Each structure stands twice: as C-alpha cells, then as structure tokens.
Amino acid sequence: MRERLERYFEFQRLNTTWRTEILAGCTTFITMAYIIFVNPSILRETGMPFAAVVAATCFSAAVGSILMGAFARYPIALAPGMGLNAYFTYTVCKGMGIPWQTALGAVFLSGVVFLILTFSGIRQLIVAAIPRELYAAVAAGIGLFIAFIGLRNAGVVVAHPATLVSLGDLRNPSTLLAMFGLVLTSGLLALGVRAAMLIGVLGTTALGAVFGLVQWNPQWYSIADITATAFQLDIPGALRIGLLEIVFVFLFVDLFDNVGTLVAVGTKAGLFTGDTKTIPRMNRILLSDAAATVTGSLAGTSTVVSYIESAAGVVAGGRTGVTSIVTGLLFLIALFLAPLVGAIPAAATAPALVIVGSLMATHAAEVEWEYPAVSIPAFLTMILIPLSFSIANGLAFGFTAFVLIRVLSGRARELSWMTYVLAALFLLRFAYLGNG
Known about the structure:
Number of strands: 4
C-alpha cells in the first residue's frame, strides 16, 4: 500500500519522503491557521454565528486541501480567501444590504460557473493564455506581497496618513518577538535545517508565552456548530436579485488568484518542466478549486481559494499532494482544537511569511529585463500585486500591458484569440469595477 501511494504521488521523481511531506504540511497549516479565527471575525459582521463560521472555515479548508492533494496531487492548500470575505461582508452584505444567506447563494453560483467553465475547457484556455514571460514576475510579485503581509503582521510596517506606510515601533514587544523569530528562522535555514520554518514558529510562540505575549481564550467548538450556517444559502434569492456583478467578482478573483498561486508555488517547487504553459493535471487543479468553493458555500463561508502560504510548505520541502492532505487533516483536527491553534500569535507566523517572500522574490532574476516588451509588464505585475493588495489585480495589469505592448510593437499575430478576449475582459473590469 505504501509503495503504491509513493508511486501515485511520484515520490521518487520528485525526490521526497513521507517525513518531508508531513513536515511541509504542518508548516503550511501553521502559516495559514490564522484564517480559522480571522475569517469568522469578518463574516460575523454580516450576522453569521461566529462558532458556525469557525466550523465552516475548518471544514471547507479541510475538504479543499485534501481534494487538491489527493485528486490534483499538488502541495497547494485551500481555505476561505482573505479579501473575498471582506468583499462578501462589507460590500455585498453591509454595503448593498443583501442577507448573508443570499450572498452565500451568489458564492455557490460562482462555484457552479467555475465547474461549467472547467468542464467545457474554457478555464484551461484562460490559463494557457497567460504569457509564459509573466510567470516569473507573478512568483516574484507574490513573494513581495506575502513578505509585505508578514512585515505588516509583525508591526515592522504600519499605515501612515501622509506616506501610506511607515516603519513601526521597533520597541513594541510583539514586534521584537517577530524580529526574534525572523533571526531564529533565518539562522536555521542558513544551517540547512529542513524544519526551520516549523521550529521558528513554535520557538517564537514559546518565547511569547514566557513573556505573556500569547493570548489564549479557550472556547470549544464542534462539528455540530456548523448547522447554523450549513445549507442556509438562498440560491433562488441570488438568482432573483440578479447579482451578476457579485458572481463575476467572486469568479474573477478566485480564478486569477488560483492561477497566480499555482504558478508561484509550482515554479518554486520545480513542478513544471519544459514549456510551463502545459501544466500537468491542470483540469484536476481547477476542478478541486471549483468544488472547494461550492463546498464552502454549502457549509456556510465565503469563496474558498488557493493559499499562497502554501509556499511555506514548499520551502520546507513539500513537493506532492501529501503536503496539502496533511494540511487538510490538521484543519479537520483544528475543528476540535481551535483554541490551541488560536494561541499561535501573528508575531510567530509573520517571520515565516517574510522569509518565504524573500525566497520567492529570487524569481525576479528569471525576467528578461533587457527587453522592454517583457520587463515593463513584468515590473507592473510585480509591483502592483503588493501595492494593490491583490494577486488578481497585479496579474490583470501586467497581462493587459503585455498585450498592448505586443500590439503597438507590431507583434499582434503572436498572441492567441483567447489572449485578446482576456485583455478585453480585464479592460472592461477596470472600467466597470474600478478596483477590487
């Protein structure tokens, strides 16, 4: 049985072991476990029960991650997406006055559209239309993005009314704790310790506990809590209101966040060989993502997406779907041990994000900077992903610039028809939505 599993997950070809994959899965889980409480904290403002959303978050993340690992065989974990949960709460429910049940119906419809586009082959055409020249830029841009998130969570970078961002208070105990974690993890990586990320997070958490910087407020949850949101979605209501714009936003952001994450994690893991436009098992990846969104809406949470924090597991050595299966199983366990997971402070996970970001930024060296037709779209992609706080925005901007420069330089025939369709959709999106 063990040998068959190793053949299925291609352990020998990818030069990995069970110990490495399990360690990588634990690392990925720890770096994204914050979503267990952050997602319910945002969605509760719609009137959704907090405990129910905790359960729905754990359940949907478990199902999505295990499906991605077992079916698509990629080390990519899934969970309810940040950004989309804020859009769900503040724009759809609070801004437009739409009940959360109806908003869940819109999420469900977007998931169904995902499935239709995948079965029809349209999503695969969309992914293939992304210029190969932008893949390294997407990976590097996402590296800057998650490093920025890590620095923000650590308190090293803070908001400023005049300059947008500024240096934080380096004397703050939590910030000092995060800086300790950054030095500890970096040192372990420099020594070649494979468990550096995991040891760094746990070691920083332990030190934080010693100095009273770890907040632990036990409040137990169970699978029964999910009944308050499970199957409460109002699909007829979503159809009746005609929430086409909302469905489109859920669809658009999830699709291109998924593509961006796939490209970044796959590139970092060395999973793509030859022409990266031909991504192995692409259909399975997209089906897993779509099925996770449908499952999430049925359980009672906003759109489920691929998490860029999966790169932390890849840096720890994860190369196969076993990594994401382990992450999914830990989310299932977290359903019953959520308070223990919640004890890990942001200061402990922030250093891991900064380090992963620095390692992913190395892909900037793969961009052909001497050619403006490549370097300008690549730069726009890299810089706008962190500055707009959106993978989808950065990819859209860089992609559109790539197409326009190709047309203006007389190389329009090099691009496929789907490339032009996507460029037109991006332009319409910017004109219609303005941002998002």
